[in-house]
Every structure is written in C-alpha cells, then in structure tokens.
TrEMBL record, chains A, B:
InterPro entries in alphabetical order: GntR_C (IPR011711), TF_FadR/GntR_C (IPR008920), Tscrpt_reg_HTH_GntR (IPR000524), WH-like_DNA-bd_sf (IPR036388), WH_DNA-bd_sf (IPR036390)
Superkingdom as given in the UniProt entry: Bacteria
Keyword ATP-binding attached: no
Species assigned in the record: Pseudomonas kuykendallii
All copies of domain HTH gntR-type, residue ranges: 22-89
Keyword Cell membrane: no
Alphabetic keyword roster: DNA-binding, Transcription, Transcription regulation
The protein, known as: Transcriptional regulator, GntR family
GO terms, molecular function: DNA binding; DNA-binding transcription factor activity
Length: 236, 236
DNA sequence: TTTTTGTTTTTTGAATGCAAAATACAATAT
DNA sequence: ATATTGTATTTTGCATTCAAAAAACAAAAA
C-alpha cells in the first residue's frame, strides 16, 4: 500500500524525492569531460594513468572505467597497451561533425515547430533579447552562452530523448574545438539575423523554414571554425 | 627513412598491414552486444557480475569496463550499488528511437544522393533484386538481412563517420527490439515498393525525394513494431 | 657514427582483495 | 498474522597487486 497516509511529499515545490548518488567513475567522466571541453586537456595530449590518478586523487580502476566511457563518446582515444589520449579531430572530422550537427539541428527544429510550448517560445525570445544586449556590450562569453542556450532550448522542444542525447554528446566534441579556434567572433550580424529568422519560423510553426535556416546557420558556423582553425595553424 | 627497400608490402591485395589486437574489454563489449541484440539476454534482465564472469571466463574488471561502455551506448542500465541490467525501452522510447532514426536516415539519404558512387548504386540494385528473390521464396531472415544491408549502404554513401557511428549505435538498440516483436512480417509489399522508389530517387540523385521516402518508410516501420509489441503484450 | 640487439624501467591490462552497501532472512513485538 | 527491527549473506565499488607489453636506455657490431 504505497503512498497511503504519506503527507510528507513535495514539501514546497518539485523537490526530487530520492537523493542523487553518483558513482566515482561517473563523477570522473563529468570532471574529465569538463577539462577536455574547457581546453585544459589539449587534443592529442597523452594521458598517463598513474599521473592522472594522483592529480584526481583516485585509484586506477574508476579512472580506467571513465576513460572507456569517454572513448565511447569520442572525446578520448585508446590504443591497446599504449594508453589513452585526448582525441583530436582532423579537418575532415570537423567538417563531418558540423555537417551532422546541421542535420541534427534541422531535424530538431522541424519537430520543435510541432511541439514547442508558448512558455518555451517566450523563453527563447527573452534569451534572444538578452543576447542582443550582450552583443551591444561586446560581452562575448555572455553572447556565446545565450546563443548556446537558444539552440539547446530548440533541441529540447523537439521532445526526443535519443535525439537530444546525441545532440548533447556531439556538442561536447564541438565545444572542445572552440577553445582552439579563438572564440570565433566572425559574422556576428549575420548570426543575429539568422536567429531572428529562426524565431519567426518558430512562431509561424514553419518547420521546413526553421529547418533550412538551422542547416545553413550551422554550415556557416562550420566554415567560420574551419577558417579560424586554418589561421591558427598558419600562425604556429 | 621508412619504406626504403621494403618490398614485402601488400603481398597479394589489400591485406591490412598491422595485426588486429583487441583488448579484453572490447571483445566483451562486442560479445555482450551480440547477446543483447540476438535476444539471448532479455530486456530488464539483471546482470550478476560474479555469474557473468564465470560464464564468460573473465574477471570482474574487464567486465565492469565493458558494462560502462554498453551503458553509455544505452543497451545496459546501471544503478549505483545495485548492479547492471539489460535496458528495456518504454513505448515512448521506442517511438522516439524510430522518430530519430527516420531523421537520421532521411539526412543520410540526402547526402548519399550527392555522394554515392556508381558501384555502390549497382550494389544496392543487386541487393534489392536478391531481396525480391528472398521474398518470393518466403525467406524472411534473408529478406531482412538484404533490407538491412541496403539501408546500411545508403548510410555509408553519406560519407559521414559521425553520422554513421550514431546510426549504427541506434540500430543496435532497434535491432534488440526485433526479437521481441516477432520478426514483423507486416506490409511486405508496401516496403518493397518503398525500396523501389528509393532506388529511383537515388538514381535521379533526388535528395529531397529520397529523404521523404526514407522518413515515411521508417515511420511505418515504427508503427508496425509498435502494433506488434502491443499484440505481444496482450498475449502475456 | 649509425644501426642493431639486449637489458632495464615504466606503463598498461587484468585479477584479486577488502570495505561498504544492499538484499535476504530471522527474530521480536504489535 | 503482520509489521518492524536487527543480523547474516551476498553483491557491488574501489584499491591494490601481479603479470605482460611497451618505451627508454645502453652496449655491441657494422
């Protein structure tokens, strides 16, 4: 007889009932992922197990488990008997990653048009306004964060957990690039214009249009990142 | 000075130079994946580590590493301190998986139209013919295998490794369903007709059209699997 | 000097061991 | 009898250990 006479539920709002527990290896996955995305651990860098263990203050077992997971995600590469290293993407891989992302976002946009709620749409509009403020103040990190949040919200509005999982995972790999391509400032106005069109399409629930905008938006981002990366390479 | 005077390369054809080595945990991942996809390990089944170790003839360390990887893939679920079990999909998850797959295949089809080679197209046609033979002989496994191969070839023709990786991984999860939905015999003629249209579109390099066909093809498959599953559930 | 071969050191792969948590079970109280 | 608390057993999480492979280094030969 569950729930009978249980008047202790949801004391105030939607506080999740059970305590969140994490296994050490999960914590390590998150931690390492962050270090990779933030560019602390650079692409190609060899990961010495003993060394990393000491740094993180854990033993080899959970670290190795974490590395296997990150390898499955594509952030880390493991060669047998030779250890792990941070994955580095070739130009081709970068092209493909962005191409795939353009497909993912286009599809998510189409679904979002059918399923987005009024609240979510309002949230996106608000984020867009906030993004414009950041732009006016030349606040690049702020701009970037809002931009990311908008794309993320559209993706969530697609209401497809599997699609979302793939999106998030691919996004990590793409973000890992960001810190090695100089926080691309490129075609700022064009990007803002794209976003305005995106919102229009969303409001009109015009899936095909949103889909097209997102597709091209991402392909432009790809080109920007690629040219940044090439410029960087030349500098070295 | 590498390669100097090395006349021992490629004795006959394209034999890969270096010996393929596998780590134990990788072997185990593949092995378990197969067991899950083939339905030997049923959804929801609890995996006892000690037990599995004895069955597979390995120790717990590589097994646990393998389980983490499979969990990242979504074939296995791990709850902290409580062990692993074969993932089972809810109806919603199944809907979403197929919906996502429809998006993936549609996008892959569009790319494939731009990039497929004449040889690949011929291969697909040949597979289609072979599939028809299987149909005529009521060879369901054979039919299914060719069908799978055609979709796989289209996906490969998209020439995008990241997209392909996601496709393959999602396919595993979908295939794991197959053995619990009675090898759906559903709408056989309609499926064949779809395939003929797909080939037409590919030949015409009509990306949009192929994309649409694949999208609907997958959504029909979704409905077939869902109704099969519901029929199965009722039987129990 | 350069290349090759043999040896030492380091690093990784996998098994085992120990502690903590969960489950199963039994005993007591209601 | 049912519910609850306490105890024993099992199972999991993580650290450690041991063996195998790779890398680094040194010695010998060309």
């Amino acid at each position: 007889m569950p729930d009978a006479g249980m008047n202790v539920e949801r004391p105030v709002a939607a506080i999740p009932l059970k305590v969140e527990r994490q296994q050490l290896h999960d914590t390590v996955v998150g931690h390492l992922r962050r270090l990779i995305i933030e560019g602390v651990l650079e692409p190609g860098k060899k990961l010495n197990e003993r060394e990393l263990c000491e740094t993180l203050g854990i033993s080899r077992t959970p670290l190795r488990e974490a590395l296997k997971v990150l390898a499955a995600e594509g952030l880390v590469e493991i060669s047998p008997n030779r250890g792990a290293s941070i994955a580095s993407m070739s130009e081709t891989e970068i092209r493909e990653a962005f191409e795939f992302m353009s497909g993912l976002e286009a599809f998510a946009g189409e679904l979002a048009c059918e399923r987005i709620s009024a609240e979510e749409l309002a949230e996106i509009k608000s984020l867009h306004a906030s993004m414009l403020t950041c732009k006016a103040q030349n606040d690049l990190p702020g701009y970037y964060q809002r931009n990311q949040a908008i794309h993320d919200l559209i993706n969530q509005a697609a209401r497809n957990a599997t699609l979302r999982q793939t999106y998030v995972s691919l996004n990590w790999r793409i973000q890992a690039l960001r810190f090695h391509s100089n926080h691309h400032v490129y075609k700022w106005d064009r990007a803002v214009h794209d976003h305005e069109e995106m919102i229009e399409a969303l409001e009109a629930r015009d899936g095909k249009r949103l889909s097209n905008i997102l597709r091209h938006h991402l392909l432009e981002k790809r080109d920007a990142v690629l040219s940044m990366l090439q410029a960087n390479t030349l500098k070295l």
